[in-house]
Amino acid sequence: MESDPDPNQPAVDPAVTDTAADIATMRIRGAATIADAAAAALATQAERSTATDPAAFERNLRAGARELYETRPTAVSLPNALRYVLRGVEGETVAALRKSTIERADTFRTELEQAQSTLGEIGANRLRDGDVVMTHCHSTDALSCIEAALESGTHIEAIVKETRPRKQGHITARQLRELGVPVTLIVDNAARRYLDEADHVLVGADSIAADGSVINKIGTSGLAVNARERGVPVMVAAQTIKLHPDTMTGHTVAIEMRDEQEVLSLEERVEIESPSEGAESRSTAVDGNDDKDSSQSESDLTVENPAFDVTPPRYIDAIVTERGQFPPESIVTLMRELFGETTAEPWEECVCSRQTDHH
Ligand SMILES: O=C(COP(=O)(O)O)[C@H](O)[C@H](O)COP(=O)(O)O
Questions:
Q1: What atom of ligand 1 comes closest to residue 29's alpha carbon?
Q2: Which of 139, 175, 243 to mutate to test the pocket of ligand 1 (most atoms within 8 A of CB)?
Q3: One domain, residues 140 and 70
Q4: Domain of 101, in residue numbers
Q5: What is the spatial distance between Cα 302 and Cα 309, in angstroms, rounded to a whole number?
Q6: Are residues 208 and 310 in the same domain?
């Protein structure tokens, strides 16, 4: 039997650390995909844990969950996925705990896929033959609605917003083209002009609050306000894993602030701040010269890069979930049904609370 090097030091498996890094750097991105990857990582942690006693195994698992949780703060699908898996962990031996963790993660991933396809069929009912859909960012839930519509023979065209600064619109455009959908790609600033040609705005969600507010990629709220002004209905495609339980007890959803270099490179910063310094200063800045870094921190040029924003429920026509379509104001009833009054952090659940009882 393998020995646990130090049961007091929870060992997070390198594969879990890699997944966490991929989520943080957005190689793995989008709320559903993040949830899927987190569940898979917990299964890996369980599979590879070298713990020899149940308490050490539980510490390993909890440490892995925490590392995954701390990557990005806005998509509630991440803590919801971790909580779902951890709640199903049971057994008196390491082998039993391992088996139940792996099975629970597998069940989660299967249900996630099923929910997305059910949601797609429901969302497709809102789309009519020949409709033009405007998208923002890249949402697998939103694309599932279009895919289901296409499968039932409905012709759909798309106006795809580029979505600065990370240009997730390019992913949407590529996947829609693979599905045979005619795509018009536009810069974000052109959205209002092209709303005249759209029959729907269709977006996903990272979190949905108890009052029906939708937290999604920055720019969603402006798009929704413009759509309302132009009379274009706004449809949010979001599996129930996007419902944010903490908002039932008055908590707000954290909006992730990302690195300024997604918006402005070091080189571009130098161009703005000291255009007369020319190429020499540009190259030192790009090389990461310490003096430049310290002058940057003293700079009065501030770049803000919020990754998400909040769209109030009054600008949203329907939230489409795998449990049906809801007006945003009624989503809280579904949340109560699904979550009860859950507010604990994912790693405080199940195995973790049992362990706390023992120590
Ligand atoms: O805002 C984004 C992605 O932001 P980022 O690129 O910063 O992760 C997506 O609209 C939601 O996550 C929904 O996606 P899905 O429907 O695939 O869960």
A1: 8
A2: 139
A3: no
A4: 14-117+343-358
A5: 19
A6: yes
Asked if ipTM goes beyond 0.85, one says yes
Residue found under tokens 């979001």: 238
Please name the amino acid found at residue 97: L
- Confirm whether 257 is domain-assigned: no
Q: 278 with 323, same domain?
A: no
278 belongs to a structural domain: yes
Identify whether 137 is a catalytic site residue. yes
* CATH number of the domain that residue 91 is part of: 1.20.120.420
Ligand 1 site, residue 75, Cβ cutoff 6 A = yes
Residue 208 sits in the same domain as residue 324 = yes
Q: Which two tokens stand for residue 344?
A: 């604990």
Q: Whose CA is nearest to atom 3 of ligand 1?
A: 30
| Domains contained in the chain, number | 3
Tokens of 337: 């049904």
Q: Where are the beta strands (DSSP E) in the chain?
A: 131-135, 156-161, 183-186, 200-203, 207-208, 214-217, 234-237, 308-311, 318-321, 324-326
CB of 216 within 6 A of ligand 1: the answer is yes
- On whether residue 272 sits in a domain, the answer given is yes
> Which is nearest to 194 in space by CA: 136, 128, 149?
136
How close is the Cα of 140 to the center of ligand 1, in Å?
A: 8
In tens digits, the chain (359 residues) has pLDDT values of 444 455 555 689 999 999 999 999 999 999 999 999 999 999 999 999 999 999 999 999 999 999 999 999 999 999 999 999 999 999 999 999 999 999 999 999 999 999 999 999 999 999 999 999 999 999 999 999 999 999 999 999 999 999 999 999 999 999 999 999 999 999 999 999 999 999 999 999 999 999 999 999 999 999 999 999 999 999 999 999 999 999 999 999 999 999 999 999 999 999 999 877 655 544 544 454 444 444 445 789 999 999 999 999 999 999 999 999 999 999 999 999 998 866 666 666 544 433 333 32
